[in-house]
Design goal:
single chain; about 260 residues; alpha+beta; 2 domains; 4-stranded mixed sheet; two-stranded antiparallel sheet; about 60% helix
């Protein structure tokens, strides 16, 4: 048996699951503290009942405080485990935030260099080709959205694709711009708004919390309002508007 190899595996497991293990240990300690408190209380009541004279409160404390030492130790241990778990989680969040910021900076630098070296027109052609490829890779149309061609205001409607979630809906360029303005008004008022709140305004279904709870933020003065690009692409010989995002949503803890 290779003790060193086992130690490495155990160490990796603890590092990976540290917050969960510490939180579990904290909960177990709190449970043990409750049990120890109950047990100590029962013993203290029996001791008091066996006394010949009725003791004062101070006499009871002096005589019985030792019974509560295990409960106190378990409580302190539980608090320590919870604090340590929270600290480890905060360190992980800070690491993720740093990686996110670095990746976004590198991406922005790359886009800037593409435009600088190839020119605005060539860069736009590349982005349009990427948009067409993304559209081609989407699953078949969702027939549940129906097939309207004219909106309530009499304007022509087109099938649109939300580039963030891949959902399809019927709208047109003017209507989408109005919804962006509506969303940004809410964003300025509230400071932060989630992806799911944007999807509600857009007329799409909400999605799972992992992506749906990402936010656009302008509460700190350094955040960005929602900014999109509408690209006309073709799918199944049908003109389609693909919405891509110039300002990406981010985890709320980065705000």
């Amino acid at each position: 048996m290779n003790i060193k190899a086992i130690g490495i595996v155990v160490e990796k497991f603890i590092k990976k699951n540290g917050p969960t293990l510490l939180m579990s240990a904290g909960l177990v300690s709190f449970g043990g503290a409750i049990y120890a408190t109950g047990k100590a209380t029962v013993k203290s009541v029996r001791d008091v009942d066996s006394m010949e004279e009725t003791p004062s409160k101070m006499d009871i404390v002096k005589a019985e405080w030792k019974n509560y030492i295990p409960a106190a130790v378990l409580t302190v241990t539980g608090v320590g485990c919870v604090v340590a778990a929270n600290h480890m989680q905060l360190v992980r969040i800070e690491t993720i935030a740093t990686a996110y910021a670095l990746n976004k900076k590198e991406l922005d630098t790359y886009k800037g260099k593409v435009k600088e070296l190839l020119g605005e027109q060539k860069a736009a052609e590349i982005e349009n080709k990427i948009a067409q490829d993304r559209t081609d890779d989407l699953p078949p149309w969702d027939d549940r959205i129906g097939t309207p061609r004219i909106g309530p205001d009499g304007r022509q409607l087109f099938r649109c694709i939300d580039g963030l979630t891949g959902q399809t809906f019927w709208s047109n360029s003017t209507e989408i711009d109005q919804k962006v303005n509506e969303f940004n008004n809410w964003l300025i008022k509230d400071g932060t708004c989630t992806v799911n709140e944007w999807l509600d305004i857009l007329g799409c279904e909400q999605i799972d919390e992992t992506l749906g709870d990402l936010v656009w933020s302008c509460s700190t003065g350094s955040g960005d309002l929602l900014s999109i690009t509408k690209r006309s692409v073709i799918r199944n010989d049908e003109p389609v508007l693909l919405i891509t995002y110039n300002s990406d949503p981010k985890p709320s803890f980065l705000d």
